Amino acid sequence: MICKWCEEEGAIEAPKTGYWELPDGNRAIEIKEIPSIECQNCGMEYQTDETVEDIEEQLLLIDTRKLDDSITYKQLMDQPRFLKKNYFNFDKYPL
């Protein structure tokens, strides 16, 4: 796989831990086992744009008050949503 940072071959999929600020700005949580990319050449670790968007959308659509300070990616994505999708992102859902 090609690394988005150094543009060299050697990037691999590897679950990583990340820290996310909740949408209300009240606190941050630790998210473990996030699908991520790790480059064996430059050492950069990152998530795809799609994964970041999925996490941010999920955090907007669930009751974040019920989240512990640490959660796995799967546990986060399995949380029940208030809405089925983010109707407020007009880039994704044009009027």
UniProtKB/TrEMBL annotation:
NCBIfam families xrefs: YgiT_finger, YokU_near_AblA
Name this protein carries in UniProt: YokU family protein
Organism, scientific name: Exobacillus caeni
